[in-house]
Amino acid sequence: MPGMPWEPSLPTSKLGDDADFGLLISAISTKLINSPLAQSHHHIEEALALLGRGDRKDRCYVFRFSDDYHTMSNTYEWTNEGIQGHQHELQNIPTRRMAYFYETIRDQGLFVVNNVHELGSEAGEFRSELVREQIGSMMAVGMYLEQRLVGFVGCDLVNRYTEWTDWDIRQLRLVADMIVNTIARHEAEQRLRLTEQKLLEANAKLAQLAREDGLTGLVNRRGLDEALDFELRRAIRGQQQLALLMVDVDFFKGINDHYGHVYGDEVLTAVAAILQTHFKRSGEVVARFGGDEFLVVCPQAIPSELVEQAEKVRLQVQQLKLHDTLSVSVSMGLYVTIPAPGTTRDSLLRQVDAAAYQAKQNGRNRLEIAPLHIK
Ligand SMILES: Nc1nc2c(ncn2[C@@H]2O[C@H](COP(=O)(O)OP(=O)(O)OP(=O)(O)O)[C@@H](O)[C@H]2O)c(=O)[nH]1
């Protein structure tokens, strides 16, 4: 893995126009330092524009290496007026095609060409590429993140030539440092956002699982309690009818004993599915109350319709054909009320449970309606 080949200290040779240099670096630094994530792309391109402004360069660009260093891609580009850009063509370029350039930047962190025609045959395809882009002079410096080479920042002169100085190299290294820091900061921000997003999704999933019955996928007892409390408060506030339907599989223990728990589970899943097809109006909640008991909460219910629906459920359960000799039925209790202030969840449950118990007592495979409160 290529690391930093030079000491991070700056060259000490006499530099060019120090004031201009300082202004440029401070302008680029100001642009990048507070650049928000959404504008980072734009700001990095602006930084490249500042680097090349005043005809000092014709093209300035950033390349990133793939993690395995097999390819490199031009991720940002600025071009001087009238100069053709090449960013779109320079994506996923195999580094072995540009071996001469890649090995130099990897080993030295710097690649300087004052005159493309001075490049020898060892430059191979890299030289042809410079000629194709009509580059006269070019220079690139490595970009490092935590001592690891991740790309480079470079600049070209098109159809003209220069003798690059220490000053130019120093400038480009500073700009490369600022750009790579900006990229790193934004990548860290993006990772953080992604992690936060995943965490929120995982929490939402956990919250959902905590309210879901694993076998039937229905709301479980915990979810039911929450939903029932919510609907009870609403019914009290609005003085609206609230109905509860309890559904209990008949002789379920016998089903388990004779056909095994797998069939028992299938019966529970099938009854749950039937209930879900009949009670899916907004606000209606079908829950597994426990064992072989289900509870349906129906806000703003119309009792006659509920009785009709319950009867359909009863008949459909009876028609279940899960095994040649297995017949299934359910006993149901219905309780409809306009809850008075102070009514509790438990008192509602006692009423509907009593109705379901009555259905068992009266022969099973039937619906009993809690006598009080029904309209
Ligand atoms: N297969 C299966 N059985 C369960 C599950 N949860 C509870 N049971 C069984 O359900 C049975 C409930 O039986 P009981 O409460 O005696 O009710 P029953 O046999 O239906 O009798 P009645 O309600 O009076 O008709 C018990 O044997 C529990 O072991 C489950 O998730 N899967």
Polypeptide structure, described:
The chain is α+β, with helices and mostly antiparallel strands and 375 residues long. The protein has 2 domains: 18-192, GAF domain (Beta-Lactamase, 2-Layer Sandwich), CATH 3.30.450.40; 221-369, Alpha-Beta Plaits (2-Layer Sandwich), CATH 3.30.70.270. The protein is built from 10 helices and 11 strands. It has helices at 18-33, 40-52, 99-108, 124-132, 166-210, 221-238, 252-259, 261-278, 303-318, 345-361; strands spanning 59-65, 71-79, 93-94, 110-113, 135-145, 148-158, 242-249, 285-290, 293-299, 330-337, 367-369. The strands form 2 sheets. A 6-stranded antiparallel beta sheet has the order 3-2-1-6-5-4, sandwiched between helices. Helix 10 (345-361) links the parallel strand 10 (330-337) and strand 11. Helix 8 runs antiparallel to helix 9. The longest helix is centred in the middle third of the chain and has 45 residues, at 166-210. It is elongated and about 105 Å long. Bound molecules: guanosine-5'-triphosphate. The site of guanosine-5'-triphosphate has 16 residues, from strand 7, helix 7 and helix 8.
The CATH homologous superfamily of the largest domain is termed GAF domain
Rg from C-alpha positions? 37 Å
Strand residue content: 15-25%
Order of helices and strands, N to C? HHEEEHEHEEHHEHHEEHEHE
Shape: elongated
CATH-defined fold name of the largest domain: Beta-Lactamase
Q: Roughly how much helix do the residues carry, as a percent range?
A: 40-55%
EC number: 2.7.7.65
Domain GGDEF: 240-372
Cofactor: Mg(2+)
Pfam families: GAF, GGDEF
